[in-house]
Amino acid sequence: MPAHDLSTRWQLKQEIEDFLFREAHILDEHRLHDWLDLFTEDAEYILPLREYVEGKVEPAGHPIIKDDKDMLRIRVAKDDTGYSHVEIPVSMTCHLISNVVVDASSDPDEVIALSAFTVRQARKLRDEAWWAGRREDVLRRVDGEWKIARRLVHLDNTVLPRGIAIFF
Amino acid sequence: MKNIDEVLSGVDWEQGLVSPEIHFDEDVYRAESDKVFNKAWLVVGHEDMVPKINDYVTNYMGDVPVVVTRDGRGDVHVLVNRCSHRGNQVCLFDRGNAKGFTCSYHGWSFGLDGQLNGVPMEQALYHGKLDKSALGLETVPKVANFHGLLFASFDPDAPSLESWLGEDVSWWLKNFVLAAPLGGLEMLPGWHRYRSPGNWKLVSENFIGDDYHVFSATHISWLAVMQEFVSKGMDAPMATYPANAQSVYEGAIGGAENAPFGMGMVTVGSDDLFQRDLSEAKTLGTDAVEWIHHRKQRLDEISKDLEGAPYSFMNGGLFPNLGLMGFFSPMIGRQFLMFHPRGAIEHEVWQWNMVEREAPQVVKDLAIQRAHQGQHMAGIVAPDDVENFERMVEAGKPTRNWERPFHYGLQMGQEDEGPAGLHGTMGPNPSEFNQRRFYRFWLQMMERK
């Protein structure tokens, strides 16, 4: 592989990691409107639950989240009402993102980014949940900036430890 | 420590006062496992979860793990998931298709009818003395199929499901919940499950009739967001709340003799929600419009001998631990929720979703999507309920806080002030009548010797 390609790829990986790490900070700082801006208008955000089917891990039917951007807006708007009890007081989250791998897509403006996450959600210093899993993102360069065009979240749960009102 | 009789004397359902002790005390929880969960008819799933020969799906009856199977002859069994040899679980997965289960400890193998078929080195080690016919998996003695909904009871002397439900509950379950006259329901695959704080009774009685919480506090963020998005002309997926609350009643069905069944909000004598379904159907094409008209006609037919035609329902529950969501509209999927006890102060929700079988695909697609956006573990409704249960548990754990009873006094004395001449009793909504009936029946089961 020519050195030029290697350095381009390295730079791309750095760019994508930087994007994903900054996104994690935005979520943990609870800047949800800034987070919405990271998605393209045609974005999809999908989170299937899992089941054990004859020993294999399979998606448990319809994803428990299958949002377009408007549905993501609805979730954020719900918290904005000030009456979204599940986020009163707001959860403290820490998103740890790692194992980032970036591959080319058939679309020259897009890349496929795999990552792993651990998220600790703490509420009122006693009720906490640990979430772990992997993400498959399609990231698109729009006007020189990366945006999330599709996110598929593989959460490692067959039974959720609590209801989901945070983002991964 | 109080004895159980003393605890039960704190359940004064007639006055709408219920001792919190029955939601927190581990001794009550153990007594209840025997008196309620070992005696009642419990929903264990739907026949469409095991459509083919050798299909199986796991579930719980109370806190007992069971497997629902369809054996080689096509018969449905409910088996306790526990090896007859040393008590190991034999079925390890959520669902699948297999000829049988082999225990991972010593290798005893069982058919889907529960029969013990194979024992490793049987002749050499047991010398022909092992009575295999007596060592099958424990088969739950009573199993019944109610228009596809599978029920089971651990009690060999349980009354028939028919008499457990009674005529009125059967009418609503068959016609409204399972939509039998409309062509029935179609299964969407997959268990959706989550843990939640709180005694199973708190969530069961919420579904059987607590609609006060919906608009008074718990779900006002949902209602506000719907209003905001609708006013902006955006697609608000869960916009299903009736604009005209005048025609919404609490249906109280079954009760003293039969398992209480509550329809949290039933619409009777108003065309509002039909008109809304119709106007939405018009945006989806002629198939959808024709189907909405067709099902309205069928609903009117099945109600022709009654004094009013119910159109839809929001939520419901059947004693002891089945919850239902109808969302007022066939444009949203129907949800079935089981509240499995997990100790006195925790439960697990096992949920499956269905859509009306005869609906055009364009409606099904919409209904499936919406079912997951509302009363669902990652939706914009259910997580707020879970938060309340968490707070109730935190405030309710100290034993000194058990002295002051929970209050269920809503619409006391106004219970039957709804339209007459339907199956069961129609009362004003919201009400806590169905909760009072829930605790009456629970108390009867607990006091049964």
Short descriptors:
A: 168 residues; alpha+beta; two-stranded antiparallel sheet; B: 449 residues; 4-stranded antiparallel β-sheet; 13 helices; Rieske_2Fe-2S (chain B); 2Fe-2S (chain B); iron (chain B)
Quickly describe the structure.
Chain B: It comes from Nocardioides massiliensis. The complex is a heterodimer of chains A (168) and B (449). Chain A has 3 helices and 8 strands.
Radius of gyration of chain A, taken over Cα atoms and rounded to an integer in Å: 17 Å
String of helices and strands of chain A? HHEEEEHEEEE
**Separation of the first and last Cα atoms of chain B:** 21 Å
Question: How much is the average pLDDT of chain A?
Answer: 94
Unreliable spans of chain A are none
**Oligomeric form:** heterodimer
Family (chain B): Belongs to the bacterial ring-hydroxylating dioxygenase alpha subunit family.
Keywords (chain B): 2Fe-2S, Dioxygenase, Iron, Iron-sulfur, Metal-binding, NAD, Oxidoreductase
Domain Rieske (chain B): 41-125
Protein name (chain B): Phenylpropionate dioxygenase-like ring-hydroxylating dioxygenase large terminal subunit
Notes on the structure:
The complex is a heterodimer of chains A (168) and B (449). With 168 residues, chain A is α+β, with helices and mostly antiparallel strands. In chain A, 26% of the residues lie in helices and 44% in strands. Chain A contains 3 helices and 8 strands. Chain A has helices at 3-28, 32-36, 69-80, and strands at 39-47, 50-53, 56-59, 65-67, 92-104, 110-123, 127-142, 145-155. In chain A, the strands form 2 sheets. A 6-stranded mixed beta sheet of chain A has the order 4-1-8-7-6-5. Chain A has a two-stranded antiparallel ribbon with strand order 2-3. In chain A, 31% of the residues are buried. Chain B is of the alpha+beta class. In chain B, 31% of the residues lie in helices and 25% in strands. In chain B, the strands form 5 sheets. In chain B, strands 13, 14, 15, 16, 17, 18, 19, 20 and 22 form a 9-stranded antiparallel beta sheet that branches. In chain B, α6 (200-209) packs across α13 (433-447) and α9 runs antiparallel to α10. The longest helix of chain B is centred in the middle third of the chain and has 17 residues, at 161-177. The radius of gyration of chain B is 23 Å and the shape is globular. The interface between A and B is large, with 39 and 48 residues.
